[in-house]
């Protein structure tokens, strides 16, 4: 998770790494739009 340096609160997003592209694509397919603790998550590839 990424936190605000001043407040210490979560900025509402984070990053994760997968062992291979297939695992990353499966996570994207299965968890994009998934609801956690009442919030819908977005799973997408990082942009440079």
From TrEMBL:
Q: Name one Pfam family in it.
A: RRM_1
Q: Fetch the InterPro entries from UniProt.
A: Nucleotide-bd_a/b_plait_sf (IPR012677), RBD_domain_sf (IPR035979), RRM_dom (IPR000504)
Q: Where is the RRM domain?
A: 1-48
Presence of keyword RNA-binding: yes
Assigned keywords, A-Z: RNA-binding
Which residues are in coiled coils?
none
Molecular function in Gene Ontology? mRNA binding
Gene Ontology cellular component terms for the protein in this record: mRNA cleavage and polyadenylation specificity factor complex
Superkingdom, according to UniProt? Eukaryota
Q: Gene3D superfamilies of this UniProt entry?
A: 3.30.70.330
Q: Does the keyword Glycosyltransferase apply?
A: no
The name on file for this protein is RRM domain-containing protein
Q: What organism does this protein naturally occur in?
A: Bracon brevicornis
């Amino acid at each position: 998770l990424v936190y605000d340096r001043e407040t210490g609160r979560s900025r509402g997003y984070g990053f994760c790494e997968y062992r291979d592209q297939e695992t990353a694509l499966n996570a994207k397919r299965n968890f994009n739009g998934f609801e956690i603790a009442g919030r819908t998550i977005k799973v997408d590839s990082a942009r440079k």
